[in-house]
Amino acid sequence: MTISEIDVPMALEGLDAMPRRSWGIPDARLEESLAAVGRAPVDAAARDEAFARAVWSVLVEPGDATAGALIRHRGAAEALRMLLDRAPASALVAAADGEIAGRAASEALARWMPRLRADDVLRALDGAARCSAQLLMPGDALWPEALDDLGDSAPIVLWVRGDPTALRRPGIAVVGARAATGYGEHVAMELSAGLVGRGAAVVSGGAYGIDGMAHRAALASGGTTVAVLAGGIDRFYPAGHEALLQRIVQSGAVVAEAPCGSAPTKWRFLQRNRIIAALARATIVVEAGRRSGALNTAHHAMDLGREVGAVPGPVTSAASAGCHRLLREHPAVCVTGAADAMALAFGADGVLPEDHEASAPPRPMPGDDGGSEPPREDPVVTRVADALRPQRRQTVDELARAVGESAANVRGALGILELEGRATGDDLDRWRRPRAPRRTRRSADESAAATGPARQEEADPSGVTGAE
């Protein structure tokens, strides 16, 4: 049995003669894997920190503030050693100087430990090497400092394909619905072309609809664009945008915080949106229905103290209902073109700061909640619903590892989902998603006629409704 086939803690226990800093993995193998993602270690400390952050990116789901607080206080390497040494929850509380509550520490250990396996980490590093990705860490010269505004929920690492300097360019996020109308696509392209023509980078999520049009217009105009993905960057999603994302790699950057091999889920899409908002000086929502994930990006931007703009649409269009709601109920600014967006992001004159590298987005004022709305559903419930499969039953332990939560929390979420008819279990305590009822052609046609084309974004066959 090779080292990559057994748990990291077991490897350490059986290799007392090997230096502990080797993490139970041969030094040559470890350093080769790190060098392949641009982290050729200059010394043992640098090697340990880079490897530990790669491990943490596998252990936690995006936005895990408990992990962020522990790493901030003790560093990634020391925090990881605490897990390997089976430190109790009380040790984590003490290590974070009391900033982590005892219950939060216990729940964190329950969701982290099932994922602590060496083969998963090495597989993520190897996958990144195969697609020529780089591992970017806080403190690096190319790390986008704007992400630090996310606090303990900031990414532990970023996996980047393309030019990482694109992440530090002054950018504006252009987001919107996947089921975009011709009007929305036209505005998105005109807006993006105008932004890159004025020197700004366009940041978006690589999705169908508004996102894709924004990226295409930026590329066609010879500008810089950044696509932030919800899953691993070794397999582009959506698959229909693989050629587009490959073009972005050539002149901009495709980035994700989830390690290679990670599948995009609704939870990861929603967490991905906070990175889009943080990277940009302002977020412009071009077109969005009432349930569009673009509104989630706008709320993240408000939470961070970033500017938010919305493009008005026809008052009769359901595809613009979300934009109109932003303008009516939140501190969003009406944007009708690139000049408006530039003025919103960079001041009345709409000119980029002379020192692009030194420029940073404005910090949120204390007590300013940006008018954000509370989440509609418990995040654990969302993640468990994502992990359920209609064809294959899974045990509670399998689901716990898939979503990065404790078995107790997963069981509670399954109870909620079962009551809502979104999960079904059997006598062996195995669970699956109920199969959708078959509809006749006539009922499908009647449903389509009732909803209309502008409501198509709410019928998401991928299971990530409202995530993009």
Describe this structure in words.
The protein has 468 residues and is of the alpha/beta class. 43% of the residues lie in helices and 10% in strands. It is built from 18 helices and twelve strands. It has helices at residues 8-13, 27-35, 44-59, 65-84, 89-95, 102-112, 118-130, 182-197, 210-220, 242-251, 266-279, 293-303, 321-329, 338-346, 379-387, 396-403, 407-419, 441-451; strands spanning 134-136, 158-162, 171-176, 201-204, 225-228, 253-256, 282-287, 307-310, 333-334, 394-395, 424-425, 430-432. The strands form two sheets. The chain has a nine-stranded mixed β-sheet, sandwiched between helices. Strands 10-12-11 form a three-stranded antiparallel β-sheet. Strand 8 (307-310), helix 13 and strand 9 form a beta-alpha-beta unit. It is globular, with a radius of gyration of 23 Å. 50% of the residues are buried.
